[in-house]
Amino acid sequence: MIYILYLYFLFSISYIFMQSTSLEIAFISVVLTPFAAFIMVFLFLALHIPIFKLFNVKPHNLYLNYLNRQMITLFNHVFLRMKTTLIGSFDPTINQVIYSNHTSYSDALCVLEKVHMPMAFTPKVSILKIPFISQWITLLGSFPVDRNNSRKTLENMIKAIQTVKNGQNMLVFPEGTVRDKYMNDVENMKAGAFKLVLKAQTHLTLIKITGDIDVRKKVPFYPINRTVQVIGTYDYDSIKEIATSELSNQMMQTINTFTGHKDQ
């Protein structure tokens, strides 16, 4: 639906520009039309925000998450020119917290495109300052991380635990920040990040993201290729007795030593 809407705006705006015989306007139309069409689609989604709030739509609502995934996919393909390959699969029948390594600011975008089930994530608190986007990710039940306010982060985690218990899945980057791009191994995972899956008493899914990482240098002139590999899923019973510090070390070592499944 989002793609159809985007194409509609794209051709409509192009048609308006084509009525002019000016070469300057024709050139501007080539540059600005895709952006203008995307803005129109973005505004279409923004109109949903008061409606979702009015009807108290839950974070795991299928329509809300469908719109979110479609918008992210459109942004990835049209503006980032990012192609993401998923190796493995996510079980849509279980509730889960997905933990991943963190090498690029586009990590959440490539994962959210490929996870075809309700999904929130852990954005930086600075994103909450952006109009519409902050309200949208709040609707999804996302768990903002404020590095300068541990008390606020704790409050947000308590809300996130309840959100996961109520049926929303969550994407977490336990490294806490984008690490050195050129370091292959994860060197540190915050143990506190694993309290979420343990307190929510749900499944833990571990993934590894590889591929192009210098997204800022490539956009929009070069295509970006990224890969999301599903390492495995652990049920709650298999991890509930493990301390968060030990669990974080185990997951870190698993990501670092993972080179792909034998059947790949």
Question: Rg from C-alpha positions?
Answer: 20 Å
Mean pLDDT: 88
Residue runs with pLDDT of under 50 for 5 or more positions? none
Shape: globular
Largest sheet: 6 strands, mixed
| Helix-strand category | alpha/beta
Task: Give me the CATH architecture of the largest domain, please.
Answer: 3-Layer(aba) Sandwich
Q: Topology as H/E string?
A: HHHHEEHEHHEHEHEHH
Count every beta strand, where a strand is a DSSP E run of 2 or more residues.
Answer: 6
How many discrete domains?
Answer: 2
Which features would summarize this protein structure in a list?
single chain, 264 residues, alpha/beta, Glycerol-3-phosphate (1)-acyltransferase, 2 domains, six-stranded mixed sheet, 11 helices
Give structural notes.
The chain is an alpha/beta fold. It folds into two domains: 80 residues, no CATH class; 182 residues, Glycerol-3-phosphate (1)-acyltransferase. It is built from eleven helices and six strands. It has a six-stranded mixed sheet, sandwiched between helices. Helix 1 runs antiparallel to helix 2, helix 2 runs antiparallel to helix 4 and helix 4 crosses helix 5. The longest helix has 24 residues. It starts with a helix and ends in a 7-residue tail after the last helix. 31% of the residues are buried. The model has no long low-confidence stretch (mean pLDDT 88).
Summarize it.
This protein has 264 residues and is of the alpha/beta class. The protein has eleven helices and six strands.
Q: What does the secondary structure layout of this molecule look like, with pairings?
A:
Blueprint: H1 2-18, H2 23-46, H3 48-54, H4 62-80, E1 82-87, E2 96-100, H5 107-114, E3 119-121, H6 133-139, H7 150-165, E4 169-172, H8 195-200, E5 203-211, H9 215-218, E6 224-234, H10 236-239, H11 244-257
Parallel strand pairs: 1-6, 2-4, 2-5, 3-4
Antiparallel strand pairs: 5-6
Helix pairs in contact: 1-2, 2-4, 4-5
